[in-house]
Amino acid sequence: MAEAVNKMKVNDVSFSLKEPHSFDWLMDLGKVFTVFDQQDSGNLSFGVMIKGQKKFVKYAGASTIHYSGDPQDAIDKLKASRHLYHALEHPALIQFEYGLELPNGYAMVFDWFEGEGLHNHWRYPPPLKETDPDSPFRRFRERPIHKRLSAFQQVLAFHVEVEKRGFVAVDFYDGSLLYNFQADQLRICDIDEYRKKPFINDMGRLWGSTRFMSPEEFTLGASIDSRTNVFNMGALAFVLLGGGLDRSYSKWEAGPRLFDIARKAVEEDPGMRYPSVDELTAVWVEASTE
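-> structure tokens emitted (290 positions)
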């Protein structure tokens, strides 16, 4: 039997949940102008005008359409993520402002960034040639190569700091990226699954997109460490600058030297990769200036 869908409306913004839920707190906070309700994380996100300023509000506690877990688990996970946004504060990361303990959930308030997500969960055919010509991903791929290289180097710079501060990225993919096409600015928007390093894969298949995941992220008992994130960064390079999972030179747009670096980053054997994102970044930046 199909689950019931409950239509909700806050201010003039409509969305659907599995069960009714009170959002009086949200209307007290400010005026909602948009909603992001298609995530499978158990979170709902809103654009809210608060005292004349746009804010991004991420909320857990409601029974969202695409989440099959217990809302309390989503609350606990969101609440636990707040320390990450403090520990990993960086110009390339969206800015966390404060959290809200609520009667039936938990919310985190961020500064608003005028960007578009590069990955649409529900309209994303993998082959590049079949992507929606109006999609943010397609439009990003049509940006000049130097602008895409600049965006990629911002992601590298952030993950150098992640590494230095004793963390590793988990569940990082192009859905974690926002891009402002007018200003050519990028922000990373979702680090909720990042962990202290190193840690042992205790799930088998970790959270994440297969297009970005290393072999050890599918292997129970494997160490997840800096070399894992080197793979993630190399995979991102092929998505932004090449053929995605088709890692052939014929699909690559950034020259032979950077291709060789990206290929080494995605070696199946962790021992064949660069030992750290810091070292990967150093050789990448050097090759970019040749």
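The longest helix spans residues 145-164.
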